[in-house]
Amino acid sequence: MTGIKTGISLAVAVALWSATAAAQDQSFSPQQIATGAEIFARNCSPCHGARMQDPEGAFDLRKFPPGEHDRFVRSVTNGKSQMPAWGDLLKGDDIEALWAYVTIGEKK
Fold it and tell me: pLDDT tens across 57-97, in order?
């Protein structure tokens, strides 16, 4: 039984590591990151702070888990808690550019 638990724990750990590594290995073009930065500055910075610095009560996006792309898209599209839904204003490419910026834009 212990061997089975160890095997399952190892499998879960490998899956989590793989998901995180895949998210960190995403390739974003400089243009996509720049577009995301523009969208962020225009729409997100009033709550999340300029360049994701000093958020005033909003979630610190510098800490957003890189393996949670779908959660990010849902939150931006549909809103979350006090954050408004942006799905009517931002289209798929805009949200992906925003994801590129939030994921690695200020880390480069």
Answer: 788 898 899 999 999 999 999 999 889 999 999 999 999 99
Number of domains in the chain: 1
Domain hosting 18: range is 2-105
Give the separation between CA 101 and CA 95, rounded to whole angstroms.
Answer: 10
Q: How long a stretch of residues is the chain?
A: 108
Q: Which of 32, 29, 51 is nearest to 41 (CA)?
A: 51
Report the distance separating Cα 86 and Cα 78, nearest Å: 7
pTM of the predicted model as reported, rounded to 2 decimal places = 0.72
Question: Which burial class, exposed, middle or buried, applies to 100 when counting CB atoms under 10 A from its CB (0-12, 13-18, 19+)?
Answer: buried
